[in-house]
Amino acid sequence: MSPRFTEWRQPLQLGEVRLDIAAIGRTGHRAPVVFLHGFGSSKEDYADLVQHPEFDGRPFLAWDAPGCGDSSLDRPERIDLPLLVMTARRLIDHQGFERFHLVGHSMGGLTALLLAHLYPDRVLSFTSIEGNLTPEDCFLSRQVYAHPAQSDEAFFAAFIERTRHGRDVSSTFYAATLRHRVRTEAVRPIFRSMVTHSDEGDLLGKFLALPCPQHFMYGEQNRHLSYLGQLAQAGVRLTEIPHCGHFPMYSNPVLMWWALAEFFGESERFAGL
Is the pLDDT of residue 1 over 60? Predict the structure, then answer.
């Protein structure tokens, strides 16, 4: 059977930090899409793009963030959002993607927003799947301060147990994979950086200022988010995914893929492609 996407490893040197990134993707003739996964998830969240005919001919790129999945780095204590953004920039450039659709979930949505803010002319459209926009979005990451622990291992073990019993649809499934998808010593540095940027980074302002079409996707369990009305008033496309919490790629992937395909098509018509 011929593979429907390519897998490779990409060594990177970012300052004093050495990384070995595991990536997947494919080539094609249409405008490409770049995916950034959330904390505790992985590049495989987006591999099913190849299963949907709406995306035939569309190149894509996804990778495991440093310290996550099959990617590694030699100094996990140095992981922060700027490092994740630099990693994304290097991988996208290596693929030769000049302009692309950008999709990020949760932590990946925050990383993607910072990337789009730095390079707005390269982003055809931006989809945030419950990516952090305000301090209220740190319901996972703020646990690094709400539940302090004496060690990385103690914190991660307690975090997994709390998540197993979380209210979000698919929380138990998500918790079951955390040990395999995140290095223990990377958890707290990632969370601290996410909280800092959410509290101090004017993320909502950055999102609304993007010149490309914007799309915010959220699960119906999170329709209480305080800024949804502000997004709608600003002309952001909102997609509520039914029977879903924070993880549409696990709870309702069919509707997630349908919404992405429709939004890409509308964005390309807007751009005259």
Answer: no
Helix (H, G, I), strand (E, B) or coil at 60: strand
Residues 6 or more apart whose CB falls under 8 angstroms from that of 241 comprise 217, 218, 219, 220, 248, 251, 252, 255, 256, 259
Q: What does the alpha-carbon distance between residue 74 and residue 203 come to, in Å, rounded to a whole number?
A: 29
Kindly state the DSSP code that residue 239 receives in the 8-state scheme.
E
Q: Looking at the predicted structure, is the pLDDT value of residue 50 above 80?
A: yes
Task: Give the DSSP letter of residue 68.
Answer: B
Contact predicate 23/95, CB 8 Å: no
Q: Which two tokens stand for residue 117?
A: 């803010």
Do 125 and 101 touch, CB atoms closer than 8 A?
yes
Query: Are residues 74 and 18 in contact, defined by beta-carbon separation less than 8 angstroms?
Result: yes
Residue 25, token pair as written in the block = 């993707």
pTM of the predicted model, to two decimals? 0.97
Q: Which residue has the tokens 């994979």?
A: 177
Residue 271 has pLDDT above 90, yes or no: no
Q: What is the mean pLDDT of residues 267-271?
A: 87
